[in-house]
């Protein structure tokens, strides 16, 4: 993501300046192919090259310049999820990279609760049931990944805490995962997390006619410093991503329909409390 963001901005600046790749490369005394790789997010951007481009475009001592150098630092840093490359499912690394840079994530899930709002006991029980081929050590590694992801809701280096807007289907709060005690703790945790100022939870109830996109899980990523939003769709076959403006714009309308159809945040929490009380442990 940092490489893509930097590439998009550098290409936009050059086009706005009415300059060709050859002209800019000649002024900076670098090869045209090197500049082209920078503008196409290929390879790791070098601080000196980006510094020279900042000067060339007259951006020294600006917020934009600080933003560029943050992207360079991030692009040059090994991602924390690389330590779990042998364990995480295919395609999840791209999702994690997108999630790490997003300012807002709008998610819709069924029939399980949003990943960032799950307790570790709930996640462990779900993984043991749905991925029985994994060893205990692999499951614990996946739980470590979940824990690292949840931290973004409270703290992130160089970025404010992630804002989460979640709509989940009523089936997800009623679907028994791990047993009544785990479910009660999970729903208590859901209520507790919902009190955070950067988290908004709404439930799509059985009693409402489902909107168009309520049959699959997806996430709508928004960025403070990237000129386009991204949609990630999750299925049993893996992840797909949309960046084309017309497709992304449609999914934003779809998500707005979900918010309008779902119970309000207060009504949603009332339903969660009601369902929680059904999971009494004998």
Describe this structure in words.
The protein folds into 2 domains: 2-75, 434 Repressor (Amino-terminal Domain); 84-276, Endonuclease, Chain A, CATH 3.30.870. Helices cover 50% and strands 13% of the residues. The chain contains 12 helices and 6 strands. Strands 3-2-1-4-5-6 form a 6-stranded mixed sheet, sandwiched between helices. Strand 4 and strand 5 (230-235) form a beta hairpin. Helix 7 packs across helix 8. The mean pLDDT is 91.
SSE arrangement:
Elements: H1 2-16, H2 21-28, H3 32-39, H4 47-56, H5 63-75, H6 92-101, E1 104-109, H7 120-130, H8 136-151, E2 163-169, H9 170-174, H10 180-194, E3 199-204, E4 217-222, E5 230-235, E6 238-242, H11 245-261, H12 265-276
Parallel strand pairs: 1-2, 2-3
Antiparallel strand pairs: 1-4, 4-5, 5-6
Helix pairs in contact: 1-5, 2-3, 4-5, 7-8, 10-12
Keywords:
single chain, 282 residues, alpha/beta, 434 Repressor (Amino-terminal Domain), Endonuclease, Chain A, 2 domains, six-stranded mixed sheet, 50% helix, 13% strand, elongated, Helix-turn-helix protein, DNA binding, Cro/C1-type_HTH, Lambda_DNA-bd_dom_sf
């Amino acid at each position: 993501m940092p490489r893509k963001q930097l590439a998009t901005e550098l290409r936009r600046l050059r086009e706005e300046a009415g300059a060709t790749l050859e002209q800019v490369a000649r002024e900076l005394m670098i090869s045209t192919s090197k500049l082209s790789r920078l503008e196409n997010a290929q390879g790791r951007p070098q601080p000196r090259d980006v510094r020279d481009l900042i000067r060339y475009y007259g951006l020294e001592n600006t917020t934009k310049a600080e933003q560029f150098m943050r992207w360079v630092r991030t692009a040059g840093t090994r991602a924390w999820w690389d330590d779990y490359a042998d364990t995480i499912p295919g395609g999840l690394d791209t999702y994690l990279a997108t999630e790490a840079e997003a300012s807002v994530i709008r998610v819709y899930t069924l029939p399980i609760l949003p990943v960032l709002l799950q307790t570790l006991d709930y996640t462990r029980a779900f993984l043991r049931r749905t991925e029985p081929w994994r060893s205990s050590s692999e499951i614990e590694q996946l739980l470590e990944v979940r824990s690292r992801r949840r931290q973004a809701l409270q703290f992130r280096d160089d970025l404010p805490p992630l804002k989460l807007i979640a709509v989940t289907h009523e089936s997800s709060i009623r679907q028994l995962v791990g047993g009544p005690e785990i479910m009660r703790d999970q729903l208590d945790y859901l209520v507790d997390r919902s009190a955070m100022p950067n988290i908004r939870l709404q439930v799509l109830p059985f009693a409402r006619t489902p909107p168009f996109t309520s049959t699959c899980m997806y996430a709508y990523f928004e960025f403070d410093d990237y000129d386009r939003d991204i949609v990630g769709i999750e299925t049993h076959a893996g992840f797909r991503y949309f960046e084309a403006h017309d497709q992304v714009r449609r999914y934003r309308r779809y998500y707005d329909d979900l918010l309008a159809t779902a119970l309000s945040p207060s009504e949603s929490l009332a339903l969660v409390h009601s369902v929680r009380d059904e999971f009494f442990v004998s």
